[in-house]
Amino acid sequence: MAEPKVFGIISIKGGTGKTSLVSNLGTALAEEFDRKVLMIDANFSAPTLGLHFGLIDPETTIHDVLMDKVNPSGAVYEVTKNLHIIPASLKGRRINPFALKEKVGRLKKSYDVILIDSSPNLDEEILSTMIASDQLLVVTNPDHPTLSTTLRAVKIAKEKQTPITGIIINKVRNKKFELSLEEIEKASGVPVIAVIRDDVRIQEGLAHNTPIVIYKQRSAPSIEIKKLAASLINERYNDPRLFSGLFRKNLKRHEVSREIIRSR
């Protein structure tokens, strides 16, 4: 990539699967597309990103960075050669979240992509992610309560003038009572760029500290996340499943939106 990009992944509601998406998206970018990726847990009050990779009680965290106890690079842990993480402290120490932008800026030159996992609460924590990010990805579920919080997140992001790349609809079960892609786009005014099926194997992988893009590489969620990852870095991902070529000419609405992102 010509220039490092910082993507903030936001959702003003717990349980949307935001952190699982961050762990999988980071893994896909690093392992499938050979990008140098840093994930940062900016859910300062209730962090869980480190747990997805078996980091239970890390010695140094983003809290230490924001308290100027260590340099940003001093809190980086290597998951793989290409995939690194700065976890947060489970002890919830008091910090200045608005220092995040400056700390992230000092790390950009070392990575192709930085992913920030935000707090799900509408407070200064999520605002710090918005301010520190170049672009935002908004995670929602296809139901009315989650959509209402999604609309709030979109409104705040626009007020902060951080560009929103698109909405990711997560935990889709293809039930009639679920909101459609079109309904979510119409309500939010933001294009949907990924639709990820609900799959128990995501939780199975989490139990083994293994993101589904590695744990079940040919599963529907895995393929969709890899396609999303590709669009964010102006790459293409060829679906390895035998039947995929039959439908390549009939792109779905969110796939068209990904093509638009890629062409920017």
Structure report:
The chain is α/β, with parallel strands linked by helices and 264 residues long. It has a single domain, classed as P-loop containing nucleotide triphosphate hydrolases (Rossmann fold, 3-Layer(aba) Sandwich). Helices cover 36% and strands 17% of the residues. The protein contains 10 helices and 8 strands. The chain has helices at residues 18-32, 62-66, 100-105, 124-132, 144-159, 181-188, 200-207, 212-215, 220-232, 253-263, and strands spanning 5-10, 37-42, 77-78, 83-86, 113-118, 135-140, 164-172, 192-197. Helix 5 (144-159) links the parallel strand 6 and strand 7 (164-172). The longest helix has 16 residues, at 144-159. The relative contact order is 0.17.
Given helix and strand content, the structural type is alpha/beta
CATH homologous superfamily descriptor: P-loop containing nucleotide triphosphate hydrolases
Mean pLDDT: 92
CATH architecture: 3-Layer(aba) Sandwich
What shape does the CA trace take? Answer: globular
Approximate helicity band: 25-40%
Order of helices and strands: EHEHEEHEHEHEHEHHHH
Q: Which percent band covers the strand fraction?
A: 15-25%
The largest pleated sheet is described as: 8 strands, mixed
The CATH top-level class label:
Alpha Beta
Q: Which consecutive residue ranges, at least 5 long each, have pLDDT under 50?
A: none
Over all CA atoms, what is the radius of gyration? 17 Å
CATH topology: Rossmann fold
- The helix count comes to 10
**How many strands?**
8
The largest beta-sheet arranges its strands as 3-4-2-5-1-6-7-8
From the N-terminal CA to the C-terminal CA, the straight-line distance is 13 Å
Total domain modules: 1
